[in-house]
Amino acid sequence: MISRNRFLITATLVCHLLLWPPLVTSQLPSEENQSKGQNKQAATPDTPCAKQAELQPDLPTICAIRQEKVGAVYYLHGAAEIYHRSYILRGDEVTYNSDSGEVTGQGHLALDGGPNDDHIRASHGTYNLETETGTFYDATGTTGLQFHGSRVVLTSTAPFAFSGKTVVKDSPDHYLVYDGTVTSCELPHPKWLFKAHTVKVDVGGNATIYHSQFLLHGVPIFYFPFATHPVQHDVRQSGFLIPSITRSSIKGNVVGEAGYWAINPSMDVLAGAEYFSRRGWSQRGEFRARPSDHSYIDLNYFGVLDRGISVPPPVAGQPPQGPIVCSSNTSCVQKQGGEEVRLNAADSLNGFRAVANVDYLSAFVFRLVFNDVFTQAVYSEVKSQAFVTKSTDGIFMSGLVGEYQNFQSTTPGDVLTINHVPAFDLGSVDHQIGRSPFYWSVDANLAGLSRSGPGFPAVHPTERFDFNPEISVPVRYAGWSVRPGLMLHETYYTKRLIGTGSAAETTQNNSLNRQALETNVEIRPPGLERVFGNAFLGRKWKHVIEPSVNYRFVTGANGFSNVLRFDERDLLSDTHEVEYGVITRLYAKRLGPPESCEGRMSALIIGGAALEQTTPWDRRPGQRPADCEPRPVTREVLSLELAQKYFLDPTFGGALVTGQRNVFASTIDLTGIAFATQPRHLSPLISRLKVQTSERTDAEWDLDYDFQLGRVNASTLLANYHIGPVTIGGGDALLQVPLNQFSQAGVPIPSGTLRTCSQGTFSSAGTCKFQQFRVGLGYGELNRRGLTAASSFGIDAETGLLQFASLQTTYNWDCCGMTVEYRRFAIANVRNENLYRFTFTLANIGSFGNLRRQERLY
Predict the structure, then answer these.
(1) Which of 228, 533, 602, 749 has CA 20 to 30 A from 684's CA?
(2) In sequence order, which residues have a C-beta less than 8 Å from that of residue 472 and are 6 or more positions away?
(3) Is the pLDDT at 840 greater than 50, yes or no?
(4) How far apart are CA 236 and CA 101, in angstroms?
(5) Burial class for 451, CB neighbours closer than 10 Å (0-12, 13-18, 19+)
(6) What's the rounded Cα separation, in Å, for the pair 74 and 88?
(7) E strand intervals along 71-173
(8) What CA–CA distances, in Å, run from 305 to 125, 369, 377, 721, 851?
(9) Under a CB-based contact definition with an 8 Å cutoff, are residues 91 and 108 in contact?
(10) Of 26, 300, 20, which Cα lies nearest the Cα of 151?
């Protein structure tokens, strides 16, 4: 679970809670706060008194410049020290009663040690060594810090300091501080502190503060009738988060509040609401549970009750982008509110693993308008599935219930929906048949399927049974690897598609049985490699070339135009093809010590996966990932994969329809970019280049080049460079998509017709081109003192418009930090927003503001 301590405050009758963040910076007291001479905050091991205490740990050890004893009472004068159990008491003038354990001290009185590493300084006071209780006057103290001369070691995840006119220790783990302060900053000049009439310090728990003022650089900022400061992070607290305030150009002034309930050590709830002055109310909630080490539940809810925005009356023939209510011919309101629910859960029991990833989205326009992360806001897919799986002896069995939605536009109802309710899968790895050279494997699926969406007929629940057994004979000789195989494809549908390519396209309850036979031969020649004898750039080099050839022939997959499409199993067609490719790799072995990525702003990576969902115990963005450690001395510096297919049957058994995009199992095995719009022998050349010369650099370039059309179908370039505290990243994505040249009725579309890509039409060249740039810049690191800044923005190269921009900057002091952010959204004609947010963080306390941790750039 995430850090669970909370900072609790009460304003009038309402309590407010601050979430605990990681330490901002070091919390060590400065040298100025340490007294000189005998008043050092720890014993030096080489002093005679300390050595004597080590020899008799069970008995008190008493040292002073001058000592007197009257009965059981010791009078100690000058540099007095008493070692008792795990505590050390020092003072200028000390009186000690060995019978009662009572100590009275004057002048530089100090108490150090104990299980919590307590350190108290006072002008005078009394203390009982046996009961570990006492009273100190004009006192200052720290917990969670161990001092060894000028060196200080943190022994607690939440060290803090306190001071008071009177400090009473009424039990070994409890203090009462009167007319004092509490802080986590360096002394003696803390950046912030709580000034309070009464403070109760429960060491190992919390410091409870009554009638306090929060001072920032000595200036009173807030008054808190009641507050708590975490001393350890072993216990979570229920309460309310501190209110959040921000400003948005489309939401207006935003004020939010939330409450936290720690139900038990493995379960909690967070719920809250925000008020948008221009739009209405939003609600958030999260339920988390960790019932066992191998199971978890994380349920998130976000919704907005939108009052709507003023829009002109809808134009005939142009569908609205949300519900519109008009009170007159000129006054209309469009509501863009909605809700999204996400559930992540997993459990394992007796070899079975159950997983649920459920995402419900009421309207795509809601996500576009109200999600504050650009990559999530423009993500048009909604995937939900729950499955149970078990594997044994190389055989895999699973049952699944799933729904896939792809929103085609913001128009209500313009969404493609495919359901698998339910689906059962059986698969296996290759198993040897006895002692023969033959191996068998199987892939089977039984599913109930349905489909709905614009542009094609709805398919009510239909059943599909797909059975694919295979026999192969792998042969290895002299470095060659040859694997011939024979596979049977047997697929049965209870419904079929009729009237393909016409306006009368519909489904029929007549069953369809697809039977196909596949022959394939995979050939891998011996790899070529060379190790270069001479070192270059302080490294030894190795070059490897790995060629491969794959022959595939499928026949009998007739009736492709009558097959209903739900997933990749339905894309099987006749084919006669050869795929050939080569992979070349370049390795470098460093002759010196391993490299380190210290100082790298690892969270700012262009091309990294979008953070759709994060469970509480997952690594948060900005934390140093596990791979950011000193690497082994050997590295794959470069890898280049080239592949292409030659189709001996350019029509795929007659399944290809000229003038339309055709997607077959054979084409998507090579690339996810559709290219088959006419008969052809050669596929595009697929290139996959990866370069990582050091921990500071990484680049990847994926390219699809079509020789037949003489153009680049797709190109994705990602590059990141890190040098010291500076991070630079960039990306360019180019996509040219072929579009249909025929209407649904089978009528050719005139080439001069003006069409838009978003509506499935095409330009005069028959393609729709997309190109976008991404740039990221960063300086510094989140958890270090000083300045940290990062910026990320994206540009649509075709329209020349800025799609999004984000600028964040943080300045950390020794015990607090301030982060401010400007975020810009320009999503078509749906969202044009400027958003301003900030967070003020107190070390070991929490954060005030509304910039959530998972939304930071670093």
Answers:
(1) 749
(2) 430, 438, 439, 440, 441, 483, 484, 485, 486
(3) yes
(4) 37
(5) buried
(6) 16
(7) 73-84, 87-97, 102-113, 118-128, 133-143, 145-148, 151-154, 160-171
(8) 61, 13, 18, 43, 22
(9) yes
(10) 26
Q: Which two tokens stand for residue 259?
A: 């409450």
Helix, strand or coil, per DSSP, at residue 854: helix
H/E stretch holding 489: strand 480-493
Cβ burial of 603 (10 Å; 0-12, 13-18, 19+) is buried
Burial class (CB in 10 A: 0-12, 13-18, 19+), 82: buried
Q: Are 125 and 136 in contact (CB under 8 A)?
A: yes
Which residues on adjacent β-strands are paired with residue 339?
303
- How would you label 689-716 residue by residue, b for 16+ Cβ within 10 Å and e otherwise? bbbbeebbebbbbbbbbbeebeeebbbb
Question: In 3D, which of 119, 96, 93 has the Cα closest to residue 175?
Answer: 119
Q: What angle do CA 411, 835, 798 make, to 5 degrees?
A: 55
Look up residue 607 and give its two tokens: 């091309």
- Residues whose CB falls within 8 Å of the CB of residue 494, separated by 6 or more in sequence, listed in order: 462, 463, 464, 509, 511
- What is the C-alpha to C-alpha distance for residues 720 and 727, in angstroms, rounded to an integer? 7
Helix (H, G, I), strand (E, B) or coil at 617: coil
What tokens appear for 653 in the block? 């058994």
Cis peptide before 526 (omega within 30 of 0): no
Global pTM? 0.79
- Any idea what DSSP says for residue 676? B
Rg (CA), the chain: 35
**Tens-place pLDDT, residues 312-357:** 777 766 666 667 777 776 778 888 999 999 999 999 988 899 999 9
630: left (phi over 0), alpha (psi -120 to 50) or beta: beta
And the tokens for 696? 């500071």
SS3 per-residue string spanning 552-575: EEEECCCCHHHCCCCCHHHHCCCE
Q: For residue range 679-721, what is the model confidence (pLDDT) as tens digits? A: 999 999 999 999 998 888 899 999 999 998 899 999 999 999 9
Q: How far apart are CA 552 and CA 554, in angstroms?
A: 7
The CA-to-CA distance between both ends of the chain, in Å, stands at 21
Tell me the C-alpha distance between 298 and 645, whole Å. 45
Torsion over CA of 42, 46, 51 and 53, rounded to 10 degrees? -10
Quickly tell me which residue has 């996810």 as its tokens: 672
Tokens of 726: 């500076």
Burial class of residue 321, CB neighbours in 10 A (0-12, 13-18, 19+): buried
Q: What is the pLDDT of residue 40?
A: 37
496-498 and 512-524 beta bridge pairing: unpaired
Rounded to an integer, what distance in angstroms lies between the CA atom of residue 38 and that of residue 82? 12
CA distance 152 to 543: 51
User: Do 432 and 447 touch, CB atoms closer than 8 A?
Assistant: no
Task: Please count the other Cβ atoms lying within 10 Å of the Cβ belonging to residue 775.
Answer: 16
Tokens of 315: 């134009």
Residue whose token pair is 């270059």:
536
* Cβ–Cβ under 8 Å, residues 147 and 155: no
Hey, what's the torsion of the CAs at 272, 275, 276, 282, to 10 degrees?
A: 40
Q: How far is it, in rounded angstroms, from Cα 20 to Cα 231?
A: 11
CA angle (18, 20, 24) in 5-degree steps: 120
Strand partners, 794: 774, 804
Contacts of 517 (CB under 8 A, 6+ apart): 486, 487, 488, 489, 554, 555, 556
CA 761, 765, 766, 772 torsion-angle sign: negative
Contacts of 9 (CB under 8 A, 6+ apart): 15, 16, 17, 18, 224, 226, 227, 228, 242
Q: Are 401 and 385 in contact (CB under 8 A)?
A: yes
- Nearest to 89, CA basis, from 143, 161, 38: 38
> pLDDT, tens digit, for every residue of 78-101?
999 999 888 899 999 999 999 999
